Amino acid sequence: MSFLNPFLLFGVAAIASPIIIHLLAKKQIKRVVWAAMRFLKITVDRNKRKMNIKDILLLVLRCLILVLLAFALARPSLSEGGFGGFGGDEAAIILVDNSGSMSATDGAVTRFEKAQKAAGQILDGLPAGSRVAVWLVSDTVRESVSEPARDLAFARKSVIEAKRTDQGTEWQPALRRAVEVLKKQPGVHKHIYAVTDGQAAGWKGVGEIRALLESVKREMRATLVLTTEGEQGNLGITDVRLATALPTVNQPLRFEVSVANFGPAEATGVAVSLAIDDEPPVEEQTLDTIPEGGAPKTLSLFATFREPGFHTVTARLHADRCPFDDQRSFALRVIDEVNVLLVDGDPGAEPRDSEVFYLRNALTPVPAELRDRFFIKTRTVTGAEFEKTALRDFDAVVLANVVDLSPLAADALQAYVRGGGGLLVFPGSRISVPFYNGLLLGERGLLPAAFGTVRGENFDETKAERPDKFFRLQAKDYVHRIVELWKDPASGSLGSAQFYRAFTLQPAKQSDVPGDAGLPAVVLSYADGEPAVMERPFGLGRVVQFSSTADGAWNDLPVRPIFLPLMHRTLGFLLERSGDRLNIRAGTPFTHPVAAERAGKNYTVTEPGGKPGAARTHTVMVKNVTPQIEQADTSAAGVYAVRFTEETGNAVRFAAASDPGESDLHELSAADLTALGTVARVIRWTPDADLRGQMERERNGTELWLPIALLAIGLVVAETLLGNRFSRAK
Fold first, then answer.
1. What average pLDDT does the segment 268-282 reach?
2. Helix H or strand E segment including 260
3. Which of 306, 332, 685, 706 has its CA 20 to 30 A from that of 13?
4. Where would I find the H helices in 355-429?
């Protein structure tokens, strides 16, 4: 047996009061010898003994009443409770799930609103004087009340004012951090309360979570409160992406929209619409069927942009009971002109002999008289002229069989790519391998791979004859964005081209990756698995490296129909680097570089669904010598618009997207809940549940104060009745 208010047991000392009163009330009788009363003595002595027994009985009852009252006030319990001391001695952390799946509704209230109510009941059920922290959990932890504190009113306010996000869920880091914080807290009782819908996608690694809670079971308790009622069906848009190589004005751009069905049955007649910016939908199509199981089904929708600049498209479904994934946005920068600098390493005697002849014609596939009006414009320079060229005027630079560059030119090229430019590298028989491997890769970290040995036969490139032996590109299993077009056999085959010579590409190792460079990736391989094309991000830009020539010296790729779309898709991929920054996962801070003259200027950010008048004002800050705009809070999925206060025109628009895995509303399995139930109390909460009472029973066990108090009242009644009876005159 334990006592919740053990100090009140000192009230037992009150039994001294009736004893003292009894002793003081004893009458002091003066003995007088009187012969006539001698015969009454026997009767008086007999009555006196009876009176003493009655007085002692009443004294015992009064003492027992006081003892029982003291025990009742001390709140005895039959299970482990603990000695509360002066008020509560509990340190608790309440973790409230505010991820995207908590937007699901039963038709009246959302799961998040239920979680807020359940968290409020938990706060009401804590003993007075308890210390409590409130954290909001998604794939990040927002500490509304970071450390357990005794201000329960502030904790309640934090719960009431909490906001739901469109982010994913990841419970393991949150629980691990909660355990670490509670370990440092003084006190006897420590408790973790996790209020969630129990979505299985957020509880990855149930075994690790169980082991964690098992390891601290003697130090603290855990309670899992589930606020879901079994709603699992959901349709969600899991992806929107641009499928056209280059996003240009006045051209229909194809967007691929993926829709998944996470319900228990096949969905039919699902309408999907696509809208530009804040305008009404420009197209709508219907998916006849979407099978259950969560595998996405993709359809193509088209949109045409009339003005260059930053734009967004938003795909929408008809709203269901989980609204956070019923729409998804994609941001892009639509261009009206692309300027490409072609650095010709072997101009040749005739235009057709130029190293960039085929490349220039592939990039501008129109008659010469129309090239000024075509959206891709090229300029050709030699390696010697490159150093004097202002790179800032170009969106991409192509090095085609360029022998080498001066250190000054290499520095300018590195700064250009770091600032967001694109670089495309083609080798040839003239290149200086030590320059590319030593300076551009080793010192500058630009290239994704080193040029190794040359494979294939050596032959006279000036003659038309080519060797009989050749090797080909892979003919299937295309994964990279540049070549995914050829997943469809109707687009032709990259495996048709013949290669006679090529450098082996030796990917840069992890240890060779400098701070500005990202990890290299294979775009395309040869049929034998050797890399043919590789890429890597560098700073804000990107580099693509081929293993063979841009002309027909080492291969016949330039004369194949696939060469034109391959070059356009490669150029689009280089330019897409800036577009990648416009699309982020909800909860990820957004940064975007701006022109130097905008440093220190004010700008406003309008959040999804917000009115321009409610936009927040910020100032352009310079970080790492680059002025940039920032938006730290992107927890809501949708379109954000950035406008400079003193400027008019097209806003910088970017999109935050929810985690596709969050759309799967399936709960933890029965086996997982059973495993968690061995280390935590699992409660299925409903709006009419008495969570406060459950908490008190769990914390206090079976309290005996009420039956003890009733027994004390019964003894009071008995003492009163006996006292009246014993005091009657005889």
1. 94
2. strand 252-261
3. 706
4. 357-363, 383-386, 407-418
Q: What is the pLDDT of residue 59?
A: 76
Instruction: Give Cβ neighbours of residue 379 (< 8 Å, ≥ 6 apart).
Output: 339, 340, 341, 342, 394
- pLDDT tens per residue, range 659-675: 999 999 999 999 999 99
State the pairing for strand pair 338-344/396-400: parallel
Residue 518: C-alpha distances to residues 371, 397, 523, 593 (Å): 35, 19, 15, 18
Per-residue tokens: 378: 């090229």
Strands in 590-593's sheet, in edge-to-edge order, are 590-593, 626-631, 621-623
- Type and span of the H or E element at 521: strand 521-525
Contact 109, 115 (CB under 8 A): no
Give the model's pLDDT for residue 576. 84
564 vs 151: CA distance, rounded Å: 68
In the three-class reduction of DSSP (H, G, I as helix; E, B as strand; rest coil), residue 473 is classed as: strand
Residue 420 in tokens: 């967001």
Quickly count helices (H) and strands (E) in the chain: 14, 34
Beta bridge partners of 379: 341
pLDDT average, residue stretch 583-589: 94
- Joined together, the tokens standing for residue 395 give 């969106």
Q: How far apart are CA 247 and CA 568, in angstroms?
A: 11
What's the rounded Cα separation, in Å, for the pair 135 and 145?
Answer: 7
In whole angstroms, how far apart are CA 526 and each of 174, 184, 457, 503, 507?
Answer: 46, 58, 16, 12, 15
Quote the Cα angle for 149-154-155, to 5°. Answer: 70
pLDDT in the model for residue 29:
54
Residue ranges and CATH numbers for the domains of the chain are: 2-81+705-726 (no CATH), 90-231+665-700 (3.40.50.410), 235-335 (2.60.40.10), 338-580 (3.40.50.880), 583-657 (2.60.40)
* 3-state secondary structure labels for all residues of 262-318: CCCCCEEEEEEEEEECCCCEEEEEEEEEECCCCCCEEEEEEEECCCCEEEEEEEECC
CA–CA distance from 528 to each of 444, 483, 498 (Å)?
Answer: 30, 17, 14
Which pLDDT value is given to residue 490?
A: 85
pLDDT digits (tens, 9 = 90+) for 410-450: 999 999 998 889 999 999 999 999 999 999 998 888 999 99
Give the pLDDT confidence score for residue 37 in this predicted structure: 60
Question: Which residues, at least 6 apart from 318, have a Cβ–Cβ distance to it below 8 Å?
Answer: 271, 326
Residue 23 predicted with pLDDT over 50: yes
Provide the β-strand partners of residue 398.
342, 424
Q: How far apart are CA 539 and CA 289, in angstroms?
A: 43
pLDDT (tens digit, 9 = 90+) per residue, 188-243? 789 999 999 999 999 988 999 999 999 999 999 999 999 987 667 899 999 999 99
DSSP 566-626: HHHHHHHHHHHHHHHTTEEETTSPEEEE--GGGTT-EEEEEPTT--GGGPEEEE-EEETTE
Return the bridge partners of 252, or none. 304
- Which residue's structure tokens are 């060779």? 512
Among 301, 178, 161, 305, CA closest to 243? 301
pTM: 0.80
Place of tokens 């729409």: 327
More confident residue, 357 or 4: 357
Cα(243)–Cα(518) distance, integer angstroms: 24
Q: How much is the mean pLDDT over the chain?
A: 87
Q: In what order do the strands lie in the sheet with 297-304?
A: 235-242, 252-261, 297-304
Radius of gyration of the chain (CA): 40
Residue 86 pLDDT greater than 50, yes or no? no
